[in-house]
C-alpha cells in the first residue's frame, strides 16, 4: 500500500492523475506495456516505470506475459487485476429477479434467476434480491464486493438512486434503494432504469459501431434508453426516454399511471393483454382463445408467440401495437437521429410481424436524412443482457467518476455515491 503522504488525493495532483490514467489505460487495453504507455502519455521512461511500480505496489496492476518484439527485447505486458474485487448486479423486473456476480473486467462469474412480482414492495423484494446475491457470494472465495448495480422497471432519479412514481411498482415511490444495498455490502451502489441498462448492454456488444443508439423496450410497459455519443442521456432528473407516457392522439384509454391516452395504454404488453381478453370474451376464436379456455390466459409472451404461429387475433394486436410504436419512434428519430434502434421486450419476440410494421411507420414519418443510414433491429434473446448492461454502468461510474476519490486507499467507499458528482 502506498503511503498517504505520497498518494493522498489532492496532494501531488499531477502524480496521482498520471497514475490513475495509467491504471485505466491498462484496464481498458489502450496501452498494455511500459513503452506503449510512454508513447501514449508522453511521459519519460523513468516516470512511467515509477508510476507502474506504484500501481503494482497498490495491487491494481501486475506484470503479465511478454509482448511481441519490435526488434529488441520483447516488452513485458501489464494486466489490470480484475479479480481483486467483485461487482454485484440485481436486475429487477416486473415479474422476476435476476442477480449476478462479475469481476472488475465485467465477466459474469455466476448468476441466478427467480420469478417474483415487483408489486410485493421494496422491503420483501430487496430482501429476496440480497439473499440471492449472498448465496452467489457464498459460493465464491471471499473476494470483496467493490460495487453494486441495481436495475428497476420504472423511472429512477439517478442522482439519488430512488424510484419516482413508478406505475407498476406500488410502494416504491421515493424508496432509498441505494442505501439498502450500501448498508448490506459496504460498497458504492448505482441504481438506474432497466431500459438505460439495456442500452448500455448494447453499447458493450457494439463497441465502436454506433455511438448514437436508441433501445426501445416493449414489454408490460414501454420505455427507451437514449445513447448519445456513447453516453446515456438521462435528462435533468433521470426521466429522459420515458416514452410510455407520451400522449397518443385521439386515445381515451385509461393508463396505469392515472392519465388518459398514454402510449403504454395503447401499445404496451398489458394493454394487448387487456384487448385480447376483451376480444375472447366477445367470441374471438383461434390459438389465444383456445389457450384461454384451457386455463392459460393471454400474456404478452403468449400473444407474441401466437402471432408468430399465425393466430389472427394475435397478429392484429401485434401489428396495431407496432404501428403506434412506429409513430412514436419516428418522432424520436427526427429529434435524435440515431444510427440504430434496438427493440426488445416480450412483445418484440413476435419478430418480423412486429418489426416490419415499425419500420414501415418510421420510414413513412421520419425525415429522409434521419433514416438514410438507420438500422432497426431486434435485441438478442439473452436473459443475461441486463447483467452485462449493469456491469457496463458500474464500470463507467466506478472507474471514470469515483475512482480518483478512493484510489489511494485501493477500494471504494459507500459515502462516495451519496455525494455530488
Strand fraction band? 15-25%
- The structure class reads alpha/beta
Q: Runs with pLDDT <50, length 5+?
A: 1-12, 415-421
Helix percent band: 40-55%
In short:
This protein is of the alpha/beta class and 421 residues long.
Q: What structural keywords apply?
A:
single chain; 421 residues; alpha/beta; Arc Repressor Mutant, subunit A; Nucleotidyltransferase, domain 5; 3 domains; 5-stranded mixed beta sheet; 15 helices; 14 strands; 43% helix; globular
What does the secondary structure layout of this molecule look like, with pairings?
Layout: H1 4-7, H2 13-28, H3 34-41, H4 45-58, E1 61-66, E2 76-80, E3 86-92, E4 96-103, E5 108-115, H5 122-138, E6 145-152, E7 156-157, E8 162-163, H6 177-185, E9 189-193, H7 194-205, E10 213-218, E11 222-228, E12 231-232, H8 263-267, H9 269-281, H10 287-293, H11 300-308, H12 312-336, E13 340-344, H13 352-365, H14 368-371, E14 375-378, H15 385-406
Parallel strand pairs: 3-6, 6-9, 10-13, 13-14
Antiparallel strand pairs: 1-2, 3-4, 4-5, 7-8, 10-11, 11-12
Helix pairs in contact: 2-4, 3-4, 7-15, 9-12, 11-12, 12-13
Amino acid at each position: 500500500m502506498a503511503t498517504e503522504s505520497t498518494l493522498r488525493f489532492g496532494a501531488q495532483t499531477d502524480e496521482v492523475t498520471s497514475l490513475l490514467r495509467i491504471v485505466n489505460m491498462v484496464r481498458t487495453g489502450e496501452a498494455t506495456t511500459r513503452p506503449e504507455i510512454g508513447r501514449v502519455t508522453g511521459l519519460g521512461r523513468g516516470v512511467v516505470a515509477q508510476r507502474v511500480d506504484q500501481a503494482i505496489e497498490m495491487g491494481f496492476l501486475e506484470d503479465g506475459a511478454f509482448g511481441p518484439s519490435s526488434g529488441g527485447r520483447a516488452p513485458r505486458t501489464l494486466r489490470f487485476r480484475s479479480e481483486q474485487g467483485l461487482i454485484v448486479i440485481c436486475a429487477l423486473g416486473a415479474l422476476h429477479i435476476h442477480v449476478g456476480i462479475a469481476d472488475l473486467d465485467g465477466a459474469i462469474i455466476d448468476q441466478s434467476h427467480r420469478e417474483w412480482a415487483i408489486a410485493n414492495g421494496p422491503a420483501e423484494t430487496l430482501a429476496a434480491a440480497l439473499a440471492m446475491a449472498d448465496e452467489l457470494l457464498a459460493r465464491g472465495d471471499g473476494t470483496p464486493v467493490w460495487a453494486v448495480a441495481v436495475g428497476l422497471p420504472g423511472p429512477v432519479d439517478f442522482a439519488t438512486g430512488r424510484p419516482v412514481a413508478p406505475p407498476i411498482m406500488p410502494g416504491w415511490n421515493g424508496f432509498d434503494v441505494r442505501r439498502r444495498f450500501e448498508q448490506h455490502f459496504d460498497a458504492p451502489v448505482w441504481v438506474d432504469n432497466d431500459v438505460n441498462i439495456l442500452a448500455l448492454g448494447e453499447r458493450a456488444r457494439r463497441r465502436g459501431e454506433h455511438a448514437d443508439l436508441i433501445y426501445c423496450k416493449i414489454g408490460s410497459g414501454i420505455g427507451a434508453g437514449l445513447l448519445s455519443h456513447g453516453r446515456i442521456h438521462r435528462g435533468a432528473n433521470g426521466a429522459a426516454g420515458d416514452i410510455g407516457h407520451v400522449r397518443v392522439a385521439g386515445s381515451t384509454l385509461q393508463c396505469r399511471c392515472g392519465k388518459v391516452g398514454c402510449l403504454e395504454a395503447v401499445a404496451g404488453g398489458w394493454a394487448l393483454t387487456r384487448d385480447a381478453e376483451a376480444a375472447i370474451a366477445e367470441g374471438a376464436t383461434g390459438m389465444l382463445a383456445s389457450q384461454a379456455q384451457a386455463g392459460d390466459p393471454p400474456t404478452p409472451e403468449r400473444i407474441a408467440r401466437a402471432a408468430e404461429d399465425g393466430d389472427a387475433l394475435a397478429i392484429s394486436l401485434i401489428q396495431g401495437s407496432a404501428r403506434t410504436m412506429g409513430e412514436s419512434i419516428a418522432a424520436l428519430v427526427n429529434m435524435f437521429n440515431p444510427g440504430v434502434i434496438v427493440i426488445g421486450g416480450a412483445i418484440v419476440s413476435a419478430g418480423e410481424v412486429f418489426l416490419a410494421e415499425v419500420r414501415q411507420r418510421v420510414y413513412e414519418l421520419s425525415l429522409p436524412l434521419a433514416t438514410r443510414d438507420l438500422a432497426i433491429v431486434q435485441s438478442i434473446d439473452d436473459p443475461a443482457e441486463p447483467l452485462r448492461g449493469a456491469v457496463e454502468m458500474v464500470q463507467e461510474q466506478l472507474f471514470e467518476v469515483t475512482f480518483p476519490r478512493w484510489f489511494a486507499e485501493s477500494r471504494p467507499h459507500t459515502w462516495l455515491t451519496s455525494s455530488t458528482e
